[in-house]
Amino acid sequence: MGFYTALADFGQRGAAVADPQAQQQEYCQFTAKAASAAVALGHPEEAEHLYLGLRERYALPRVHMSTSYNLAMLYTRWYRPEHKDHNLAKGFCNNAIALAVQEPDPELRAFYTVFQSNGLALVEMHRGNLADALRLVTEGMQRLDRELPADKYIVHRWQLMHNRARVLVALGRPDEALSDFDRLVAGDPNYTEYYIDRGNTARMNGDDKQALADYDRACKLGIPFPEVYYNRGDLRAGNGDIAGAVSDFGYVLEMEPDHLDARISHAELLIELGELAGAAADLAEGLAWHPGTAALLALDGLVALLTGDHERAREQLDRALILDPDLAAARAHRAVLAADSGDPDLAVAEFSRALAILGDDPDLLYQRGLAYLALGNHAAAAEDLLAVTACGEGEHLQDASERLAELADRPVS
């Protein structure tokens, strides 16, 4: 249900009252649940401390097997990129497998070995060894089907299939992955993560309708994951549902005010809607969280430009370009500022740099064409305007055609 703070509290209190020797199983379970909650709450270091404490306290094979698996997941999945260590994670997985194969009960031996190998598959996927990851998961699924009754360990079988689907996505085989996701959703229709992953895969496969349906279901079904609201907002924005996208990005920021991508997207859409005061407030908060972010500075410069504060616009755009000289948006905004300020030479230069980064963007070509017209360079202007018409799209298509016609009618001097 997502009540991770309560889970951490119950786990810690349970471990505090359980006797570590007389109630070993209870003590281990309470501690492991507290560690799982710590991971979910974004505190993997605390989880590692708890797992290492269990390893120090007990010389029990299952304790070392399960903590090895969980430590591997910390280092391959949950730690921040600078603290991840996939090689160390693989070592923990190998240790878990070595203990699993010693299990005397044949049914449990098969289950434990497959489950620990599934962890190794995830590590191999993160290490870039996708073929090995797919082999490990597939062999594990086949072994469970071969050695265990079909009605046992159902959830763990779904977990294997889920990991196989993820590996297939990484291998660039979305159709096969979607087939697995369909089976997962049919088997366990109340598990949010299946919908999120299927939605992401469907979108990758060009099926925006399916993606949106899955994101909608995930939003209604589970706890509010920022990821799914951000993904749905991005999809809505791309399909013209600006109000829906603003709502989704706004909700992400309500949950995680330091979410940079959501902040940028939210501000961009507010600007598009003409809600400049809201965008300015949005950007002020974003810059308080991320003061040295070129994209936020460029948007703040754009808001200043649109509200007529050319001095602030120039200051913010200059700061953005110092941080990121190849930020095309900042170049384009500074070009517009130069054109508005009566400096067509600088406008042409900045539009040219932006076009060198982005390629033949029809809007930028049109605006550079106007800057060339202001300089009296009719040949260069005609070339840009002709390129706009050749694109066959863009809001300035008709105006570019009309200006080309005017240039064609102009007498040669």
How are the SSEs ordered, and which strands pair?
Elements: H1 4-17, H2 24-40, H3 44-57, H4 61-78, H5 86-100, H6 106-126, H7 130-147, H8 154-170, H9 174-187, H10 192-204, H11 208-221, H12 226-238, H13 242-255, H14 260-272, H15 276-289, H16 294-306, H17 310-323, H18 328-340, H19 344-358, H20 362-375, H21 378-391, H22 397-409
Description:
The mean pLDDT is 95. The protein is built from 22 helices and no strands. By secondary structure, it is mainly α. Helix content is 79%, strand content 0%. It has helices spanning 4-17, 24-40, 44-57, 61-78, 86-100, 106-126, 130-147, 154-170, 174-187, 192-204, 208-221, 226-238, 242-255, 260-272, 276-289, 294-306, 310-323, 328-340, 344-358, 362-375, 378-391, 397-409. The protein starts with a helix and ends with a helix.
Poorly predicted regions are: none
Spatial shape = elongated
Strand content: under 5%
Distance between the termini: 77 Å
Mean pLDDT: 95
Structural class: mainly alpha
Count the strands? 0
Q: The biggest beta sheet, please?
A: none
The helix tally amounts to 22
Residue share in helices?
Answer: over 70%
Could you spell the SSE succession in H and E letters? HHHHHHHHHHHHHHHHHHHHHH
Radius of gyration: 28 Å
Structure, briefly:
The chain is mainly alpha-helical and 413 residues long. The chain has helices at residues 4-17, 24-40, 44-57, 61-78, 86-100, 106-126, 130-147, 154-170, 174-187, 192-204, 208-221, 226-238, 242-255, 260-272, 276-289, 294-306, 310-323, 328-340, 344-358, 362-375, 378-391, 397-409. It contains 22 helices and no strands.
